[in-house]
Amino acid sequence: MISKHSHEQSDRGEGVEVVQNEPFEDPNHGNGQFTEKRVYLNSKLPSWARAVVPKIFYVTEKAWNYYPYTITEYTCSFLPKFSIHIETKYEDNKGINNSIFDNEAKDTEREVCFIDIACDEIPERYYKESEDPKHFKSEKTGRGQLREGWRDNHQPIMCSYKLVTVKFEVWGLQTRVEQFVHKVVRDILLIGHRQAFAWVDEWYDMTMDEVREFERATQEATNKKIGVFPPAISISSISLLPSSIRSAPSSAPSTPLSTDPPEFLSVPRDRPRKKSAPETLTLPDPEKKATLNLPGMHSSDKPCRPKSE
Questions:
Q1: Which member of 30, 170, 185, 284 has the greatest number of CB atoms within 10 A?
Q2: Annotated region Disordered: where (predicted)?
Q3: Residue 51: which region, alpha, beta or left (left: phi > 0; alpha: psi -120 to 50)?
C-alpha cells in the first residue's frame, strides 16, 4: 500500500525516492525491515514555508518495521531542529487500549485523536469514490461499505495506535509549524489507511516474496518517475551488516544531523562583499525645514506633549 501510494504521489521531480529497503535485525524487537526514503515536497509546503526553504528540499524518512511494532522518523538537514517521530503499535481491538504508550510517553502531555477511516472528512482534492470505505465492497473478503458505528459491530477489526511527536525548536515559528505538521500527519494517516482498506483485494492473497517483488518494481518505477535513476534497488533476504553494527535503538532512534548549511546555501569566498551604505554620508542642512510624511502620520508645527497618566 505504501509503495503504491508513494508512486501515485510522485511526479515531475517531486515525490518519494527509495534509498534503502532491506531486512534488519534488532536485539529487542527481532527481525524486521528497514527502509530509508527521501520525500521531495517543496510544492506541497504552505507559502510561508516555501519562502524560507530552498527549492531543492527533501525530508529523510527512516522506518524500522518490526510488526506489530514500528518506528518511523523524519528529519531534514536544512532544518536541524525539526523532527517527526512516530511509534506504531497494532492490536486486534477497536481502539480501547488507553495505556498502550504509557511506557514510551510516561509523564508526557498527550492529545488523543481518533481517526475514523469511514466517516472522517478528508481534503476534497484527495477524495476518490473507489477509495471511500462507505462505498467500497471487497470481492475477496466481503468486507466493506462501512456505516456509522462500524467500529462497534464490524469483525475482524484492528486498531493502529500511533504516538506522534513533532519538534521544531525555532523561536517565533515553533507553535505554528508543529500544529501544521500534526494536521498534515493526521490527514496522511487518514488517507493512507482508507487506501489500505480499499486496496485489500490487490494485496490480500500476496505471499511475502510477492510483496517484496512488488515493492522492488514499484520503487524503481517511482524513482524514475521523479527523475532519479540509481542502480536497481536491491531488496535482499539477508542482512548486509552484523546486527551489532546495524541495530536500531529500542526507542526514539536518532539520525545524525549536520548543522552546516548545504553547499547550495554557502556564500562563495571570492564573491565581492556588497556595500550596504555609501562611504560618505551627507546630512541635511539643519536650517532647512524638512517634513517626512509616512502613511498614517501627519506633520504638525506644534510640539508634542506627553499625555498625563
A1: 185
A2: 1-32, 247-309
A3: alpha
